[in-house]
Amino acid sequence: MRFLISAQVSYRAIRWLLLCGLLCTFPADTRADEEQSKSADAAHAVSGTVLDPSTAPIADAQVKVLTADGQVLASGATDHSGSFHFDGIPRGKYHLQLQAPGFKNASIDVTIGSKPSAPLKITLAISSLSETVSVNGGDSAIQVSTDASENQNANTVDSNALDRVPVFDRDYVSLLSRFLSDDAVGTNGVSLVVNGIEANGPGVAPSGVQEVKINQNPYSALFSRPGRARLEITTKPGTPKFHGIANFLVRDSVFDARNAFALTKPPESRYLGEGTFTGPLGRDKKNTFLLSIMQENDNVQAIVHAFGANGTIISDNVPAPTRDFFLSFRAFHDFTSGDQLWIAYSYEDGRDANQGVGGTILREAAYNAESREHEINVSYRHIFSPKFVNQLRFLVGHNNEPVVSVTNAPQNIVEGYFTGGGAQADSKRTESHFDGADIATWSSGKHVVNFGVDSPDLSRRGADDFTNQLGTYTFVDINAYNAGTPSNYRVQTGNGHLVFWERNVAGFIEDNIRLKANFSVTLGLRYYYQNYFNNDTNNFAPRFGFAWAPSKKGKTVFRGGAGLFYDRSGPRAIADLLHFNGDGKGLFRFILPLQPGGIVPFPVTPADLQGVPTSLVVLDPRARIPSIFQYSVGVERQVTAKSTFSATYVGTRGIDLFRSRDINAPSPPNYMARPDSTFGQIRQIESEGYQKGNSLELLFRGKPTKHIAGQAQYTLGKSYNNTSGIRYFPGNSYFPSLDWARSDNDRRNKFDLLGSFEPSDLFSFGVALQAYSGKPVNVITGLDSNGDGIFNDRPQGGLAPRNILHGPGQITVDVNLEHEFHFGKEKKEGPSLTAALNVFNILNHVNYVDYNGVLGPNLGQPSSSYPARRFQLNFEFKF
Q1: For residue 795, how many other CB atoms are within 10 A of its CB?
Q2: What contacts 454, CB < 8 A, 6 or more positions away?
């Protein structure tokens, strides 16, 4: 009953938090309105960002504000981020003139009203037609757009906004990933796009991140995954003047609350120092650099809460420290023609001890991991003409990731109780890789065409697999463990060394067509290629999008689109196919017992393996590359001058999804023997899975009042499938259709809020709220009744539905309180020190990670939870 009560309480709390969050998002700021009405005649600012056709910022662009009679009221140049800002502009109508070498001049009409105007976003040299942007100031300012890349159900967060919200360990990627959709994420996880190409990490320290975009232009042919599955990160360029940012973060458990599963609060501490330094290289301001560095020491502990005999609890606090060092140096050169070149080198070294421990996994089953990576990035933008721009980006890198088990012993899995013994995780993965993209943009009349090639992965991979060499015993319950009677034993022998090439290449073309001033269409096509799938190496994915505004100057836009997105197998599946191919040169995997219900000796000796057939991994000859077909339709409405609201329906269909199946499993109905006695388990990787998902997304974003900014997103969704990925086996390999049920990612309600409140220069207050309903939990018997060697049999003779247990919900509120101290007369440009206090899970709500899904006395019992309340102190120095 404990998990049922928790689910009910979480559901009620979610409803209240949703109501409170929405009320906080639409606050009534009467005082601010009165101040604005009193200052109707006051001067305001004109600000914005100047971009090239590839959306990269244009530095040193000349910007002038002219009155109606042609007098220059203000002038200046854009900074390194392409931004400009002019204060003290009275109400009235003006002309904005922009010039930059290699770009076509632009003239924009601007109207300043009684309220602050929204920042402008101006793209130079994108078409042969003059582009006029009308900004009417105050509530009539237009932010919604019919451009394909300006969908308002996206989230764009710049570095200043990220500094005002609570960010644990300054990990922007994890913070913003909560706005993504699990149904859209592929085999390799979240797609991280850094400066236009896929990457494993941002490539800079957190202070070097300029902007993060989520779901921008969701059906663009330039990207391999849909918008809700990728994070687009833009890093900061070099500057002609010296600037720097230094951050120091400290955390100590003496101020924290105790984890719900820890009998005693473990001593923990966290220290992180990171920063960036930028400026000119020599006397020529066209040569600049960006130095980025980070060092973090995290002395955390894992909490073990496992189950022993007669309802006893095994509790343990296990030190699991991590260390990470990162260094990056980038050099930039701006040509007089408008071209730009930059080249970068980065190095990262990480060391993690006692990993994989916690919950029902005991201290002895830990492993130590290391990671070292070298990387070189190059980017070159060349302007052939005002209508034709080419952007080349690529990186080459090498990484090395060894893993070593802490305990050199066989592993013991006791279903529903604990996992002990050795981790049996010894391995070493190396990779020498090339990732690159060449994107050309050509514009003419009503057309803006993007085309090029993209190579997300060309890698020489080393996969040394020494896992499970001492074997793994599986016991059906604690009584079987105490009696020394395992039901299953697995072991690997042979040559675990492997080297192979993984090749993924893509090509794309996309035409953005403005049919009318209030109607635009995007048509795109992307080509995918992946090796090792000989029957399905070439795939074409069409993309389509539209945006229509009923009125040319209206505040409402209807938007929709659809697209096909192909997945990748990932390197682990390729390594398994090559390791266990049965040629006698690779790895051998043996599974006992030979017959269902047979006896497994304890311990197993080499003599017991004599005559046991090896197991294989094969690829289904009919296998295809999985794909996701996603479509959506929605409406966007501008609420205030600086805020918008969008409502979008999103449908997702997963086609030919990966799964694994034992095609040599014992045959029904008696399940007494394998059809081919010369082999053991034959794991066939196939693409027979299907997924169906529907969701309604409501998003409010922007700055509804003078002092409040942020975004709030609510998603009502439903997702069903019959597979959980490429390593997933159905409960019965002969009846995989029985696995159709709620997907592992099925959350019916999901609410996220990121916001900041700045009432004055005295302090700013930031908040991050998560309120989620629970994901499902699969219930299994803990037995292998069908003799396939996989302990995933479900109740009722395997006929019980999959994922029938409702998992725990989650409610987390994080806050950030900070004050900025300025030194010098120029507050915006002068040095400053910001002191901030972050409190994570300030309500100290217990958020369980999962429930035990094995039939028996521990069914429905949680064994781990997310951390309790934690305090984090941040200091940031800027100059």
Answers
A1: 14
A2: 197, 222, 224, 436, 437, 505, 506, 507, 508
Measuring CA to CA, which residue among 460, 656, 625 is closest to residue 528?
Answer: 625
Q: Cα–Cα distance between 868 and 865 in angstroms, integer?
A: 8
| Secondary element (H or E) of residue 159 | helix 159-163
Following CA atoms 358, 361, 366, 369 in sequence, which dihedral angle do they give, to the nearest 10 degrees?
Answer: -60
The residues near 699 (Cβ < 8 Å, ≥ 6 apart) are: 152, 153, 155, 645, 646, 648, 711, 712, 713, 714
Contacting residues for 826 by C-beta, under 8 A, at least 6 apart: none
Read off the amino acid at residue 396.
Answer: V
| Rounded Cα distance, 556 and 625, in Å | 39
Residue 820 and residue 163 in contact, taking contact as beta carbons nearer than 8 Å = no
Position 537 scores a pLDDT of 80
Residue 648's nearest CA partner among 703, 588, 600, 713 is: 713
Are 424 and 468 in contact by the 8 Å Cβ rule? The answer is yes
pLDDT score recorded for residue 324: 97
pLDDT one-digit tens code per residue, 565-598: 999 888 999 999 999 999 989 999 999 997 777 8
- Residue 709 CA to residue 570 CA, distance in Å, equals 39
Contact 845, 809 (CB under 8 A): no
Q: How far apart are CA 693 and CA 173, in angstroms?
A: 25
Q: Residue 47: beta bridge partners?
A: 85
**Among the listed residues 8, 78, 89, the one whose alpha carbon sits nearest the alpha carbon of residue 45:** 89
C-beta of residue 366 within 8 angstroms of C-beta of residue 356: yes
Q: What is the pLDDT of residues 822-872, one digit of tens each?
A: 887 666 667 999 999 999 999 999 999 999 999 999 999 999 999 999 999
Position 45 confidence tier, pLDDT thresholds 50, 70, 90: confident
> Rounded to 5 degrees, what are φ and ψ at 654?
-90, 125
What percentage of the chain exceeds 90 in pLDDT?
A: 65
For the chain, which residues make up each domain, given as ranges?
Answer: 2-26+242-565+624-657+691-878, 44-140, 155-235
Cα gap 704→713, rounded to integer Å: 15
Q: Which residue in the block uniquely carries the two structure tokens 């830990």?
A: 366
Assess contact for 118 and 619: CB atoms under 8 A: no
β-bridge mates for residue 172, sequence order: none
CA–CA dist 487, 601 (Å, integer): 9
Q: Which CATH architecture has domain 2-26+242-565+624-657+691-878?
A: Beta Barrel (2.40)
Q: In the block, which residue shows the tokens 């071209």? A: 339
Average pLDDT on 556-570 reads: 93
| CATH class of the structural domain 44-140 | mainly beta
Q: What is the 3-state secondary structure (H, E, C) of 62-74?
A: EEEEECCCCCEEE
Amino acid 40: pLDDT: 38
- Chain segment 786-805, per-residue pLDDT in tens: 999 999 999 999 999 999 99
Query: Residue 335 CB: number of other CB atoms within 10 A?
Result: 15
CA distance 506 to 624: 17
Give the burial string for 398-422 (b: 16+ CB within 10 Å, else e). Answer: ebebebebbbebbbbbbbbbbbbbb
List the one residue out of 66, 46, 52, 48 whose CA is nearest residue 100: 52
- The 3 state secondary structure assigned to 588-629 is EEEEECCCCCCCCCCCCCHHHHCCCCCEEEEECCCCCCCEEE
pLDDT at 247 over 70: yes
Query: Do you find a cis peptide bond into 606, omega within 30 degrees of 0?
Result: no
pTM: 0.84
Q: Is the per-residue pLDDT at 35 higher than 50?
A: no
Q: What are phi and psi of 167, to 5 degrees?
A: -125, 115
Nearest by Cα to 472 from 596, 600, 612: 600
What the block records as the tokens of 219 is 């059906």
Measured CA to CA, the distance from residue 614 to residue 682 in angstroms comes to: 9
Residue type, 706: K
